[in-house]
């Protein structure tokens, strides 16, 4: 990422209060973009906004539940009202279900995971694409999926299914909109030290070391490393890439 690379661009990031989303919002700000920080967690989202501003950038916060169609439509409308257009979007907001087998899974919990992770990405893409088509040509969208969509992880039926659906949406959206200059890609992170991952691992240092050992790089990744991938996919440096899912996983998919 080069300084000023996104000057004059407007970037929308969902799930931007913490973790990968926050790192990406900060990175877009450092690169010169005007950033809309979207999340359901207002206090942490406002902290992301203030950190971008303190670094000399421009940012606004909008509260959104991405499973709510009206809220998503309002999010995109607010983005355009504040900054005039939408150039880059990262659809990163998501939730996770505690490990449970398919046989023991609660239907309500399944519905919520699919609503946030898959329906949420669909709704965001729908309104982002409409705005990009209206202002055209061009625009980039990056969706956050997971390597669990590409390998078997026991007791993750709802989460893995939702993330696999995102890969399909990414590919289909790219095919439908490439003729308009809109590029749509995804990142599939794994083992990134986000609050969600660290909460799942708890305080057990041995468990953290064991997770790190499953990566061929033998370590966990940082949110900033994921942000580098997102900004690359959002930049002209990846101008001939669309419909692609990029693993940001320390080599977990390559592990024997």
What's the arrangement of secondary structure elements?
Blueprint: E1 10-14, H1 19-30, E2 34-39, H2 42-54, E3 58-63, H3 69-83, E4 88-91, H4 107-135, E5 140-144, H5 157-177, E6 183-189, H6 195-201, H7 205-213, H8 223-234, E7 245-248
Parallel strand pairs: 1-2, 1-4, 2-3, 4-5, 5-6, 6-7
Care to describe what's here?
This protein is an alpha/beta fold. The protein is 46% helix and 14% strand. The chain has 8 helices and 7 strands, in the order βαβαβαβαβαβαααβ. It has helices at residues 19-30, 42-54, 69-83, 107-135, 157-177, 195-201, 205-213, 223-234, and strands at residues 10-14, 34-39, 58-63, 88-91, 140-144, 183-189, 245-248. It is globular, with a radius of gyration of 17 Å. It starts with 9 loop residues before the first strand and ends in an 8-residue tail after the last strand.
Helix share of residues? 40-55%
Count every beta strand, where a strand is a DSSP E run of 2 or more residues.
Answer: 7
Beta fraction of the residues? 5-15%
Largest sheet, spatial ordering of strands:
3-2-1-4-5-6-7
Q: Classify the oligomer.
A: single chain
Pick out the low-confidence regions. Answer: none
Q: Main sheet?
A: 7 strands, parallel
* Average pLDDT over all residues: 94
Distance between the termini: 32 Å
Q: What is the rounded Rg?
A: 17 Å
Structural class: alpha/beta
Tally of separate helices: 8
Order of helices and strands: EHEHEHEHEHEHHHE
- Characterize the overall form: globular
């Amino acid at each position: 990422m080069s300084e000023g690379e996104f000057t004059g661009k407007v970037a929308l990031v969902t799930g931007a209060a913490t973790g990968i989303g926050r790192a990406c919002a900060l990175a877009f700000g450092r690169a010169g973009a005007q950033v809309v920080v979207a999340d359901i967690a207002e206090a942490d989202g406002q902290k992301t906004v203030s950190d971008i501003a303190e670094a000399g950038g421009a940012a606004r916060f909008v509260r959104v539940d991405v499973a709510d169609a009206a809220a998503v439509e309002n999010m995109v409308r607010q983005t355009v009202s504040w900054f005039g257009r939408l150039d880059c979007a990262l659809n990163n907001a998501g939730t996770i279900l505690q490990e449970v087998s398919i046989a023991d899974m609660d239907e309500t919990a399944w519905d919520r995971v699919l609503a946030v992770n898959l329906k949420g990405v669909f709704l965001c893409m729908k309104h982002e694409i409409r705005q990009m088509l209206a202002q055209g040509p061009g625009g980039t969208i990056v969706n956050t999926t997971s390597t669990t969509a590409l390998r078997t992880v026991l007791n993750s039926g709802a989460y893995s299914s939702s993330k696999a659906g995102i890969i399909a949406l990414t590919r289909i959206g790219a095919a439908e909109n490439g003729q308009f200059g809109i590029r749509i890609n995804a990142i599939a992170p794994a083992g990134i030290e986000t609050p969600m991952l660290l909460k799942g691992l708890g305080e057990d240092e041995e468990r953290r070391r064991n997770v790190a050992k499953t990566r061929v790089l033998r370590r966990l990744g940082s949110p900033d490393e994921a942000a580098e991938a997102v900004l690359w996919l959002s930049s002209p440096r990846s101008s001939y890439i669309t419909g692609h899912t990029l693993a940001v996983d320390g080599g977990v998919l390559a592990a024997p």
